[in-house]
């Protein structure tokens, strides 16, 4: 009889725990995502991003007026703008390589229609422009443009580049 009572008490305790845990006010587990939504940004951050975009657009317009910038879309190419300009269309047509942002824009098909019309894909899934493989800038050109970018960003600030002593 005592054994039956112990089994009944244990069963009732387990059922109570299960009920309490299922209906209790326990902390909820939130779903994890690979990337946060852009709408998850604070208003302050969104305003700063908009201001940065406007500043890039203004710098792009100034570079265009000086004849030092030609992009492949209406939106600013931050890589070229912050590096002091460049000609993405000439880079693309020369076959010598394009900057990283232009490369990404081409693969995302975020370029002007006249460029889109010349894009095809080879049997290996690589992007071609006028039947020529699209490549990134060479390592030495990337190093030169990044050096120019650092020089322009720090001009007059008295700061030294990250990782380098002045």
Indicate the overall shape. Answer: elongated
Number of strands: 5
Q: Decide which structural class fits the backbone.
A: mainly alpha
What is the string of helix and strand elements? HHEHEHHHEEEH
Percent of residues in beta strands: 5-15%
Helix segment count? 7
User: What Rg do the Cα atoms give?
Assistant: 28 Å
| Low-confidence region ranges | none
Task: Kindly state the percentage of residues in helix.
Answer: 40-55%
Mean pLDDT: 85
**How do the strands of the widest beta sheet line up side by side?**
3-4-5
Major sheet attributes:
3 strands, antiparallel
Could you explain how this protein is built, in words?
The chain is mainly α and 166 residues long. A 3-stranded antiparallel sheet has the order 3-4-5, with no helix packed on it. Strands 1-2 form a two-stranded parallel sheet. The chain starts with a helix and ends in a 12-residue tail after the last helix. The protein is built from 7 helices and 5 strands. 52% of the residues lie in helices and 7% in strands. It is elongated, with a radius of gyration of 28 Å.
